[in-house]
Predict the 3D structure of the following.
Amino acid sequence: MVFQESFEWYIALYLFLGGVGAGAILSAAFADLYNREKYVNYIKSASLIGMPAVAIGSFFLLLDLGQGLTKPWLLIYLFANPTSAITWGTAILSLFIIVSLMYAAYNFKIIKFGGGKLTLVSLIILAIGTAGYTGVLLGVLKAIPFWHQTLIPALFIISAMSTGISATVVVKEILFRKEKEDIAPFETGHFYLMVLEFIMVFAMIIIALNGVPEMVYSIKVLLAGKYAVQFWLIFMILGLLLPTFLYGLQEVKKLHMKGNFLIIVELLVLIGGYYLRYLILHAGVYTEKFSHYIG
């Protein structure tokens, strides 16, 4: 078994930041459609995250392209193949950055357009596409069987929505704490998203354990190998199970999270979201029979 070495930490950052930005804007767009006046501070907070997170994440993606930074004019070739997932992904990321920037400018009254239903529906589609592409980017690489699961894009979309809400709540607590804005529906949605994420991670484990030897090796590396401590302690316990448990207590009215305590819980979710991607990347292995996909 050979561990992949092509995708480094900066790809994990792209996958994470792209998901956070997409998830934040997705939740803001739904809030806007439902009741803009009631959730205006939440919407503003999400707007501050969406474009910058995806733009910074895309920068880290460019680092992987090598000549994309030293010879930026070559990036035009990213749009040259309409049948390529990379071409579609580049188009989606570019449109998301442009439309979410316009939406942020509208929310902070810098411009007077960019907040209509057409914009919101476009943002929902682009946000789902952006979050999904972070999983598709791995799935199209057939050399790594562990990544080539149809579940990965769906898992990344769910995680993106969860981390997007967490990042938005953190910004809202910092900038608009004095504003009394009830975001209970988002907290409830966040709880169920984390439950769903746990179910999907469990399903990923079962699928991998019953897959080809390379998939089995990858998942065992996470469960009991070199990345087991990070997987169980940082991702599963601190990043997923503990926040889910605390949100569950809040759902049954046994706990009320607010202020700095809420920020800490949301930061744990964000750490878990990053480690989910980092660990999936670093557990990727291939063997000789898949080596013809490399290059």
